Amino acid sequence: MEEKGFRRWRGLLHGLLTAAVRLLFLLSACSVVASAREVGANAYPGVQLLVHNDQVVMDNGIVEVTFSNPGGDVTGIKFNGIDNLLEPRNRETNRGYWDIVWNRPGEPSTYMRIEGTTFKVVANTDDVVEVSFVGRWSNSSDSHLAPLIVDKRFVVRRGSSGLYGYAIFEHPKGWPDLDVGEARIVFKLNGQKFHYMAISDERQRVMPTAEDRASGRVLDYKEAVLLTDPSNSELEGQVDDKYQYSCENQDNKVHGWISSDPLVGFWMITPSHESHTAGPVKQDLTSHVGPTTLNVFYSNHYAGRDVYMSFRNGEAWKKVYGPFMVYVNSGSPEEDESKLWVDAKGQMLTETISWPYDFIHSEDYPSAAERGTVGGQLSVRDRYVKNSDMLADSAYVGLAAPGEVGSWQTNTKGYQFWTQADNNGSFEIRNVRPGVYGLYAWVPGFIGDYRYHMNITVKPGSDMELSALVFSPPRSGPTLWEIGIPDRTAAEFYVPRPYPGLMNKVFKNDTGERFRQYGLWERYTDLYPKDDLVYTVGIDNYRRDWFFAHVTRNIGNSTYVPTTWRIDFNLQNVDFRGIYRLQMAVASATQSRISIRINDPNEQPHSSTGRFGYDNAIARHGIHGLYWRFGFDVPGSRLHRGTNSIYLAQSRTARTPFEGVMYDYIRFEGPPRTH
Ligand SMILES: *[C@@H]1O[C@H](CO)[C@@H](O)[C@H](O)[C@H]1NC(C)=O
Ligand SMILES: *[C@@H]1O[C@H](CO)[C@@H](O)[C@H](O)[C@H]1NC(C)=O
Ligand SMILES: *[C@@H]1O[C@H](CO)[C@@H](O)[C@H](O)[C@H]1NC(C)=O
Ligand SMILES: *[C@@H]1O[C@H](CO)[C@@H](O)[C@H](O)[C@H]1NC(C)=O
Ligand SMILES: *[C@@H]1O[C@H](CO)[C@@H](O)[C@H](O)[C@H]1NC(C)=O
What we know:
Layout: H1 2-29, H2 32-35, E1 48-51, E2 55-59, E3 63-68, E4 74-79, E5 96-103, E6 110-113, E7 118-124, E8 128-136, E9 149-157, E10 162-171, E11 178-188, E12 194-198, E13 204-206, H3 210-214, E14 217-218, E15 225-226, E16 239-240, E17 247-248, E18 254-260, E19 263-269, E20 283-284, E21 287-288, E22 292-299, E23 309-311, E24 317-330, H4 337-353, E25 372-380, E26 390-391, E27 396-400, E28 417-420, E29 426-432, E30 435-442, E31 450-451, E32 456-458, E33 463-471, E34 479-484, H5 523-527, E35 534-536, H6 542-545, E36 550-551, E37 553-554, E38 560-561, E39 563-571, E40 579-592, E41 594-598, E42 607-608, E43 612-614, E44 628-635, E45 642-650, E46 660-669
Parallel strand pairs: 25-33, 35-39
Antiparallel strand pairs: 1-2, 2-3, 3-4, 5-6, 5-11, 7-8, 8-9, 9-10, 10-24, 11-22, 11-23, 12-13, 12-18, 14-15, 15-16, 17-20, 18-19, 19-24, 21-22, 25-26, 25-29, 27-28, 27-30, 30-31, 30-32, 34-46, 36-46, 37-38, 39-45, 40-43, 40-44, 40-46, 41-42, 41-45
Helix pairs in contact: 1-4
Bound molecules: 2-acetamido-2-deoxy-beta-D-glucopyranose (NAG) (5 copies).
């Protein structure tokens, strides 16, 4: 009863909010469509569905959306006097489509558009029309198709300025093996209209065109282009690279493009990240030159081969990607882009509080009542920091498939539900799909990962409270010195200014996300042309003196060499019989192996991380990729009274400028206290 009441109340609130947002929008926008109508859901006409042999049209009086039949590609979106917000010059299959990258085991990967073969009307009322286009592999069909069933769904609602989409991917039990490398939906927008892109408050501007990129000079890899002759001369001499517009899943809520004539916005809104891959800090592409807008549900960007999705021995699997909303808005000629960006953010909030949606007609998408809640309180126990337990301030806490500690960051097949605890370490994860999960956490300011010792079973309507969870981060002795902040990124270290001739001026704030600029890896060679970085504990400041990435050095003629960093530190007293420990947290690694030497640069390595890392986050301007943690014992007999040195050699290969690691945090611990 209470829940129903709550839901009704929430529905009302949602209705009011939506009406308020729309009212504001109508009052100021005076768009042709809107001014002809009164405000209020019932003032809008019912949604019309027209099914033709080769196309399906859904029209709610605000947007008219056209799909190919039975392919289920979005071929047209008519809105506010623009015949098609999508690129009419592209073929119909190249405007709004789902695609994957996949392969059979051992074969090279291939790219595939998901094309429907059967069309079905799922719901058809005045309030909501939902359609389904299913693409299905069959044993007799040709081998170009991945052995999957994909049900592409699209929804248009009465009075709603846009459309919703989602897809149900299925690998039925017993079907052939495959690997999947990427799954996403792509919208290619009308290039005559959309020139302004907005990813965040800090990243937005008039963008180059696809033609500008084509005439530019390709830099160190094909995605990065120096604009040499752009149609908009202000962009000349700037770099464009789609990876500069990436963001973490947790921040990927609304992004898109704006046309200035007429003033119209096209937005990808992601109200929940439950179906995105590999947790809240996994990064991926958003929008980029094309003009293109993506929703990447799964890829191995910023992760590499450690994040993959393989089906073997007929494994049964099903997952709903989405729903997302494509939101469109408009303004009057005297308004500007900021108006539409602010309105789109408002719509994003409206969509977020409406999650889970109550208008989706798939039994694979549970309603609010069919989901559960898991709450609790986490604290941190580290007796070398404090004698009593500490509240896990702002801890990230999440539910993901059961697995090893930290396994969420490579988990691709399941759903994940994350939240951030309050200052007291209290958390509540709402709207969790029924299922069996592991409960995982990490706490800013501490190294390591937490996992609850038992599986968590969420049932429809269940509300579970886990009190007194205690995380004991890795620690074996008192801190003698430390470099950086344990926050899983290298952002606090020295990030140099970009080369003036290789800037991307999409960033409004030069200090905020400078790490997304192109070519910063080469600055290492400028700063350390002969001798590598030496960091002296107690004198140097990691914000200034610790380069953000331990990269190779360019010695000219496209030749790179491995580099060795040295940390000097002073010990007044040495416990020659004690065991010291070097704790090392790494925020990203690409083709790396860090060898550690103590006080002798020529010795056989004292220890090593072994080969690790394929996340390519240095080239992709990511500031972090996957998180790794290492601990190395250092016998006191290896240390002296006075100055000691630890050598960190990134020693694996040096074929490119992008190989190396980004450290998160390094700590040297004294021998354990005896109690
Ligand atoms: C496909 O067809 C072959 C030969 O008819 C059969 O042996 C196999 O079991 C079928 N596979 C599936 C997944 O239906
Ligand atoms: C955290 O705990 C303090 C002290 O117990 C309390 O005053 C405060 O309200 C709590 N904060 C939250 C967000 O629960
Ligand atoms: C948790 O669930 C997984 C997968 O179902 C299972 O393999 C594992 O044994 C379970 N762990 C515990 C502690 O029950
Ligand atoms: C720029 O970014 C930094 C770091 O995120 C932030 O502290 C600062 O307030 C920003 N400055 C402006 C002008 O937005
Ligand atoms: C650069 O490399 C090429 C090919 O290996 C070689 O022929 C040339 O002599 C090198 N130039 C310099 C300046 O080292």
